[in-house]
Amino acid sequence: MNLFRGKMVAGGLGLVLAGLGSLLLLPAPAFAGEWELGGLVNFNTGTYGAGDRTNSVYMPFTVTRHYTDGEFSVTVPYLRQSAWGQVIWLGGKPVRPVRGPVSVSVPAQAGLGDILLRGGYTLMREAADGFGMEVYGQLELPTADKEKWLGTGEMDESAGLKFTKEMLPGWLLLASGGYTLVGDPPGTDFNNQLSLGLGVKRSLSDKLSMAVQYETESSIVSGNPAPASLNALVTYLMPDSFLATGGASLGLSDGSPEIGLSLGVSQKF
């Protein structure tokens, strides 16, 4: 890691830590539902342009503390992959870490993934026109076994903005942008990652909603195709503050899994 990148990482880490820490000092809301516990099962399959197919099961368990204008969450994931060395996980998404094929000497690997610490804060919320803006920061702790290619073995720091705007009654425009300082394992020089998203969310009833979003990220390895996907998510509010989610994604480039499916449930208490 060169000196310039080292200063960037140190500065980015300091900003993210300061932002996450400040969220813990925000006053809790006066209503019930300030804590949330959730789990998700996410299945992805694809060749990622490498020829050999990789099937991944990613199961994150998340505890979230909600505040009046923000939130803080800790995500602990379990990860299983059918191939070794083809794909690693960055920020909860599979990415291609090398160019060209990799010798698959071990048929499958499983274990703890990288733990994610995430905080978000609402900078602006306008009830009149439905405009909202949120800033977020995230730390990815290197808890995954890099020998199993479940992670890079390095810390990653992310920050970004999310926007919402009501276009028509019941319709929200979604937009987001973020930047990740990707940690470099010894002997590698990963690119930092820019991410962008654009989509819409439709409230079908007071309990049911659906969102469709296009997402893309720059490749962490020069010469590899940039990940791009079209994602759909349905959420349904059940009795006793349970929230059920179901999602599907379609890969639009060799940098993404061809198909992704997810099912999850969470509860506020």
CATH architecture: Beta Barrel
Query: Radius of gyration from the CA trace?
Result: 19 Å
CATH class: Mainly Beta
Task: Quickly give the structural class.
Answer: mainly beta
What is the tally of beta strands? Answer: 15
Number of helices: 1
Q: Could you report the average pLDDT, rounded to the nearest whole number?
A: 86
Instruction: Report the end-to-end length measured between terminal Cα atoms.
Output: 44 Å
- Strand arrangement in the largest pleated sheet: 1-2-3-7-8-9-10-11-12-13-14-15
Q: What is the CATH homologous superfamily assignment?
A: monomeric porin ompg
Strand-and-helix sequence, N→C? HEEEEEEEEEEEEEEE
As a percent range, the share of strand residues is over 45%
Helical residues, percent: under 10%
Largest sheet: 12 strands, antiparallel, barrel
Q: Can you tell me the CATH topology?
A: Porin
Structurally, the number of domains stands at: 1
- Global geometry: globular
Summarize the structure.
The chain has one helix and 15 strands, in the order αβββββββββββββββ.
Describe this structure in words.
A hairpin with a 7-residue loop joins strand 14 and strand 15. The strands form two sheets. The protein has a twelve-stranded antiparallel β-barrel with strand order 1-2-3-7-8-9-10-11-12-13-14-15. A two-stranded antiparallel sheet has the order 4-5. The longest helix is centred in the first third of the chain and has 21 residues, at 3-23. It starts with a helix and ends with a strand. It has a single domain, classed as Porin (Beta Barrel). Helices cover 8% and strands 54% of the residues. The relative contact order is 0.16. With 269 residues, the chain is mainly β.
